[in-house]
Amino acid sequence: DGAAIGSLSLIKENCKPFGVYAGSPAKYIKERNKKILELEEEYRNTYMVKAKVRKLISLVIAVYRNESSLQILYERILKLVKNINYDYEIIFVDDGSDDKSLEILLEIKKSDPKIKIISFSRNFGQVPAIIAGMKEVTGDLAINISADLQDDMELVVKMLKEWEEGAKIVI
Q1: Contacts of 14 (CB under 8 A, 6+ apart)
Q2: For the whole model, what pTM was predicted?
Q3: How much is the pLDDT for 120?
C-alpha cells in the first residue's frame, strides 16, 4: 500500500548517517536506534488502525451426569458473555457420564465453535476433570464453573472486576 511504502522510505531517509559523527560508535548506534523507534511509532500512530482486542475468558466446566442442566447452563453463559467485554471459550470436560451429557454437549458444539469438549473414557472425578480442562485453556484468565447450575453468573462478573483491578487469583 502507498502509505506503507511512503513510510518505509521516510524511515530509510531519516536513518541515513548523520554526517560526520564525532562520538563513539556505540553512542551513534544508540541515537540512530532511538530515531528509528521514533519513526516507527510515528508510522504506527499515523497509518495503522489500532484494533481493540478483547481479552479471552476461558470457562472450564467439569460435567458428570448433568444432562438436565447443560442447555440451561450454556444459555446462562451466553447471556453472561453478551454483558461483558470479553471474548470467550468454553471447555467442557465430560467425566465419563453414563447419561446423555456428552451427546448434548456435542449438539451444543455444532452451533458454537468456541466450545471445546474433552471426554474421559470413565469417571476420574471432578478434580482431574478440572485439571484436564485447565490444561486446554488459551484465555487470558480461566474460571471454573459447576455444571449443575449452583454458580451464580453474577459472581463471574464480580470475579472479573477483581481480576481487572490486579488480583492474580480470585476465589
Answers
A1: 35, 39
A2: 0.69
A3: 96
